[in-house]
Amino acid sequence: MLHLDPWNKVMVMAGAAAAVAITILMVVCCVGEGCLVYELINSSKRKKAQARKLSGALYGTADKNGVNLTNYAAYGRGDAVHIPTRQQSVASAYSLNEKDERSLLSRLSSSSRTDSTYSSMSSARTSSSSIESTSTTSSSSPTQDKISPPAVTFSLLASIIPDSNTVKLAIAVESATDLPARDYGAHCDPWVSVTVLRDRRSIRRRPPVPVAFFRTKTIRHAHNPFYSQTFVTDIQKNEIKDISLQLTVMDQDRHCGPVEMGHTSITLRDAKQTVEEPVKFSTTQFIKQKKKDCGEILFGLSYLPTAQRLSFSIIKINNVRQEKVKEDDTLNPYLRIMMFSQSGRLVKKKKTTVKVNTKDPVFNETLNFEVAPGQLENSRFLMTLCNRTQVVD
After folding, report:
1. Residue-level pLDDT at 94
2. C-alpha–C-alpha distance, residues 212 and 248, integer Å
3. What is the 3-state secondary structure (H, E, C) of 206-219?
4. Whole-Å CA distances, 167 to 98, 237, 299, 360
5. Over the Cα atoms of the chain, what is R_g?
6. Which residues are 313's β-sheet partners?
7. What contacts 172, CB < 8 A, 6 or more positions away?
8. Which helix (H) or strand (E) holds 118?
9. Of the four, 29, 51, 331, 387, which is 20 to 30 A from 68 by CA?
10. Between β-strands 151-160 and 243-253, what pairing exists: parallel, antiparallel or unpaired?
C-alpha cells in the first residue's frame, strides 16, 4: 500500500481539483458563446456552413431550401392555345370536296399574304395599350390628327367551270379596322355578315333578291378584328353581271341584340369578275352606318341630391315603326333603362310595364335609380324599346 506524506497528498488533491476545473471550463466553453476556445472550435464550422450556402442548391433544383421554378414544358401541349394558320381557318370555314373548289381557294389564299394590307396582323384582338400607343404616335404628326373611319377588308375571286352553267364565287373576309366603341362606353364584339344579292331587271325597281348568306365568327372586345375566313357559293353564269355583295359589320351586344355598325356593297362587275379569266380582287372599303328612325320617346329627368335619387318619368312613345316578319305580328312594347359605369359595366336595369297591342303606348311611369352625386358625371344610361312576343294574360 502506497504511503504518502502530507505534501504529496496536497499535490494530488490540487491536481485533481485542477483537472475538474479544466474539465468544467472546457464544457462551458464548448456549450456557451463568447469564449475564445468556443470561437476557435466553431470558426471552422461556420466557414463550412457559409461555403455550403453559397454553393448549395440553386433555384429550380430538388433541394428543399431552394425555390422550384415552374416547368412549363411539363404541362404538355394540351394547355397551349392553338392559333390556326390562314390555310387551316379557310379549310375549317368551308369544307371543299371538289377539285375546282380546292384550286379556287388555293388561288385566293396564295397571294393573300402579299396583297392584303392587313396581312401583318397576327392577333384577332387589339389590347387597350396598343390602341393608346397607336393614338399617341399618330397624334404627333399634324396630318394624322383625324380618326380614320371604320373599314372592312375582303377579297373576291370567281372561277368559271368549263362545260357548266355555274360559277364558283369565293369570298374571303380578311379583317375590319377602327371599329367604334358602343354608345355607353363598352368594347364591341364584331362579326361580319356577307349577303350575295341578285338584282332584278324591272321597271318598278324592286329590291335585289338574296341568293346566299354567310357570317364570320364573333371576336369579343376587338376594335380591329382579324377573321381570315373564306366562303364559297355557286351562281348562274348568265346572272353573274347582276350579282352584288353586301358586307355588314355587326356588333353582338348582349343588352340590345345585334346592332349594325356599318355596311358596304360592291358588284362583281366593279370587281372585274365578269371577264373570261378573272383574277383575285382585294379591296378595303369604308363602311357607312344607316340610321333608322324608329319613333320618339317623351320623358322627364330629375335628380334629388338629398335622397341621391335619379328619376326617369316615362310619359309616352309616338310613331313606333315595326318591321313585321309575319302579318299577324303584334306590337307589345315596353321600355327598358340600363345604367352603366364609365367602363361600360352594367350596374342596374329597370323596365316599365308591357302595353299590349299598341303602337303609341302611354306609360306615365317613374323609374328611380340610386346614384351618388359623385357618380352622375361618370354614369351612362341606355333606353331601349323592346317588344314582348308572348304576353301572359
Report:
1. 41
2. 14
3. CCCEEEEEEECCCC
4. 13, 6, 55, 50
5. 40
6. 300, 366
7. 90, 108, 109, 112, 154, 155, 156, 157, 228, 229, 230, 231
8. none
9. 51
10. unpaired
